Amino acid sequence: MRAVIFDLDGTLIDAALDITSKLNQVLAADGHAPLTLNEVRSMIGDGAKVLVERAFAARGTQAQAQNFERFMTIYAENPVIETVIYEGIIPALETLRDEGRPLGICTNKPMRATQEVLAALDLARFFGAVVGGDSTPYRKPDPRHLAAALAGLEVTDAIMVGDHANDMNAAAGLGLPAIFCTWGYGEGKGEARAEHPAELPGLITRLG
Ligand SMILES: O=C(O)COP(=O)(O)O
Ligand SMILES: [Mg+2]
Fold this sequence. Notes:
Shape: globular
Number of domains: 2
EC number: 3.1.3.18
Protein name: phosphoglycolate phosphatase
Bound molecules: 2-phosphoglycolic acid, magnesium ion
CATH architecture of the largest domain: 3-Layer(aba) Sandwich
Enzyme class: hydrolase
Strand order of the largest sheet: 5-4-1-6-7-8
Distance between the termini: 6 Å
Number of helices: 9
GO biological process, one term: DNA repair
Structural class: alpha/beta
Number of strands: 8
Organism: Acidocella aminolytica 101 = DSM 11237
Order of helices and strands: EEHHHHEHEHEHEHEEH
CATH superfamily of the largest domain: HAD superfamily/HAD-like
CATH class of the largest domain: Alpha Beta
Helix content: 40-55%
Largest sheet: 6 strands, parallel
Strand content: 5-15%
Mean pLDDT: 97
Oligomer: single chain
């Protein structure tokens, strides 16, 4: 029975409202107009540093180290005001856990914020390994980032579940199957496609 490695933002949780409001505070501090939720959704997926870079680039300027640090501080202080677990995720995780599958997370979100979010949403209990965007020198789509999550679970085989091409490409780089989730922020193509979290246990059983 294969382990399952989940992406976090856009797959297990919808963090876009909190990310948008904190990113807009950082933009406002430098006198820039806010971004819309949809603009920010399309910028999520490559970690916090790239997110801040994209936000400032959208305002015609280059982000500085202090902008990134301000975002990390503001976000990690209180990352779960409007962040929610997608409907159907908890039952899916319970099913997979009850099947005895090792479960892990590989996210590009920095580790401190990841841990805050998992604790606040009572999600940490499901996962035997959590690898954040600054846990290794690599980030998805680099397959070595995903490999660190497998190593944390002490497994060599897994199914990746994510909402972004980065997730699909990291899995492909290790020769692992992936399920693309349509409810998140990105575009991508895996061995299977889920339209709702309730479909995940069945798709995972099919993939092994
Ligand atoms: O922080 C991000 O950019 C996205 O994080 P994710 O890898 O959990 O989707
Ligand atoms: Mg994601």
